[in-house]
């Protein structure tokens, strides 16, 4: 397989699929350029190695053809600034004669952005003829959009067949894959997954897949109460999914069969209202009276969870263990974050991603003290569910 490091870009047009789906305000100003910044190393490397970057992306969800508010021209000036003043041109479309003419004449050190891929319905349909038109704009194809790697769209997967020997991952997608493989394929043991958040239903496929891989599974947050109720406990007014009581029982059974240690809150910080200002008391998780609901892990549970995390070789954290948005119920999630930082300092590999755990680690200002933060959303979740992602398979095949 080709890599950016080994590929000879000199004199070649590198068609780079990036994720420039950035938020814009009503003046079309970029309010968060994280995704653009993330793509810079790949773009700069192509330029440095004598190639001509031809960048393609989607932006927003245009419904029926071109719409000015979704035009990638709103990104041109900022991309030029991020590339130290390099000239950035925008093509009128992502396919067609005029666009091809521009792609064929990108001068050294300059960059061309193609117009929004999703101005053509064929992009999301994975239309092969459209992919072939796109492919004409490059001599090689770099997939650097992990955020759309779970979609078999024309630019993210179907296009690969037009570059049988000239396709590779960019640095964004490369480091996502490398980090995820450190967790899922070849973890330093013990491997601990912390699954939090509100609902079992949104995490169930991931939990089922992880049961085949992890040594320890910490179940936290709102999910806890479905498990506690399934065991016959009283959960008062805590959040619960009654349709998933049988699922919770099955997870406990499978965990036992596979020798996975399941850690769940024994005590909780309960509240008499879903509010930061509610009255609180520490209760056993299986003995919560009506009128009270568990909103955070309790002190004993926090200690149990921290011990397991601090002794881990690899840690995956997906979802807070309490309503961290309320400062009075953020203590459990903060303790998890602290334990992950401690374990990381001792040499563990820690990956934070999916759901609100990224917001959580950012809120605590600890983002720089863990090994890797994935911001990919859907693609990350599908990877953790054990699915093959079309955008990865297309480059590797
Ligand atoms: P997710 O997006 O699945 O990671 O879910 C995150 C959400 O779960 C956050 O908004 C938390 O406030 C919420 N959450 C965590 N613990 C609880 C709980 N005990 N009761 C209700 N919601 C919770």
Notes on the protein architecture:
The protein is of the alpha/beta class. It folds into 2 domains: 13-169, Phosphoglycerate kinase, N-terminal domain (Rossmann fold, 3-Layer(aba) Sandwich); 177-384, Rossmann fold (3-Layer(aba) Sandwich). The protein contains 14 helices and 17 strands. It has helices at residues 34-48, 73-82, 97-103, 121-125, 128-135, 171-184, 204-210, 223-230, 245-258, 299-310, 331-345, 357-363, 378-384, 390-396, and strands spanning 13-17, 52-56, 88-90, 111-113, 140-143, 167-169, 191-195, 216-219, 234-235, 261-264, 267-271, 280-284, 287-288, 293-297, 314-318, 349-353, 372-374. Strands 3-4-2-1-5-6 form a 6-stranded parallel β-sheet, with helices on both faces. A 6-stranded parallel β-sheet has the order 10-8-7-15-16-17, sandwiched between helices. Strands 12-11-14 form a 3-stranded antiparallel β-sheet. Strand 1, helix 1 (34-48) and strand 2 form a beta-alpha-beta unit. Helix 8 packs across helix 9 and helix 10 packs parallel to helix 11 (331-345). The model has no long low-confidence stretch (mean pLDDT 97). The protein binds adenosine monophosphate (AMP).
């Amino acid at each position: 397989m080709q890599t950016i490091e080994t590929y000879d870009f000199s004199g070649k047009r590198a068609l780079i699929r990036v994720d420039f789906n950035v938020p814009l305000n009503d003046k079309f100003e970029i309010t968060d350029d994280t995704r653009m910044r993330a793509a810079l190393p790949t773009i700069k490397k192509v330029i440095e190695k004598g190639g001509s970057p031809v960048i393609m992306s989607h932006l927003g969800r245009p419904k029926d053809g071109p719409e000015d508010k979704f035009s990638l021209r709103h990104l041109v000036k900022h991309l030029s600034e991020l590339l130290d003043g390099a000239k950035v041109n925008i093509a009128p479309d992502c396919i067609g004669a005029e666009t091809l003419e521009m792609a064929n004449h990108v001068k050294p050190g300059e960059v061309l952005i193609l117009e929004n891929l999703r101005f053509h319905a064929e992009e999301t349909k994975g239309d092969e003829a459209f992919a072939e038109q796109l492919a004409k704009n490059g001599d090689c194809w770099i997939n650097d959009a992990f955020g759309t790697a779970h979609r078999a769209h024309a630019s993210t997967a179907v296009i690969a067949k037009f570059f049988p020997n000239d396709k590779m991952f960019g640095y964004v997608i490369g480091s996502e894959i490398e980090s995820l493989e450190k967790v899922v394929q070849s973890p330093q043991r013990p491997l601990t997954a912390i699954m939090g958040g509100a609902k079992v239903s949104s995490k169930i496929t991931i939990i089922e897949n992880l049961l085949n891989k992890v040594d320890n599974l910490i179940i936290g947050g709102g999910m806890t109460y479905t498990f506690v109720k399934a065991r016959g406990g009283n959960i008062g007014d805590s959040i619960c999914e009654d349709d998933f009581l049988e699922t919770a029982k099955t997870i406990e059974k499978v965990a036992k069969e596979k020798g996975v240690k399941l850690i769940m809150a024994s005590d909780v910080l309960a509240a008499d209202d879903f509010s930061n200002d509610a009255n609180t008391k520490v209760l056993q998780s299986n003995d919560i009276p009506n009128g009270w609901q568990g909103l955070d892990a309790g002190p004993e549970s926090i200690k149990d969870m921290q011990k397991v995390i601090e002794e881990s070789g690899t840690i995956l954290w997906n979802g807070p263990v309490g309503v961290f948005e309320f400062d009075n119920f953020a203590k459990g999630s903060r303790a998890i974050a602290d334990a992950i930082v401690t374990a990381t300092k001792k040499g563990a590999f820690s990956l934070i991603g999916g759901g609100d755990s990224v917001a959580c680690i950012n809120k605590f200002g600890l983002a720089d003290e863990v090994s890797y933060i994935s911001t990919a959303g859907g693609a990350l979740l599908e990877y953790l569910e054990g699915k093959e992602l079309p955008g990865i398979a297309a480059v590797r095949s």
